[in-house]
Write a structure and sequence with these properties.
This protein has 1 helix and no strands. It is an all-alpha fold and about 80 residues long. The chain has a domain of about 35 residues. Keywords: Coiled coil, Membrane, Mitochondrion, Mitochondrion inner membrane, Transmembrane, Transmembrane helix.
């Protein structure tokens, strides 16, 4: 039997089979990611509808916007790392 046929045919077969297998594996990975992104975008859309419903239910006239008081300052020295 010819040496090229003895080693070349199985090599070509494994290369083609490996290419097909990797294509299926990677394709499923991207299909799963696409499905996850689609479900997240649908969920985001539903969350926006729920937000609108809640805002209609509670209304935006029931509260008053007030600024928060400033946080109390720390009078201590922040450079406690030095040992003098």
């Amino acid at each position: 039997m010819n040496r090229a046929a003895k080693f070349g045919v199985p090599l070509v077969f494994f290369c083609v089979a490996g290419l097909y297998g990797l294509q299926q594996f990677v394709g499923q990975k991207y299909e799963r990611m696409d499905k996850q992104v689609r479900s997240m975008s649908e969920r985001r859309f539903e969350l926006q509808e729920e937000h609108k419903k809640l805002m209609e239910r509670f209304g935006s006239d029931d509260f008053e916007l007030k600024p928060l008081p400033p946080a109390p300052d720390d009078d201590g020295d922040d450079d406690d790392d030095e040992d003098d």
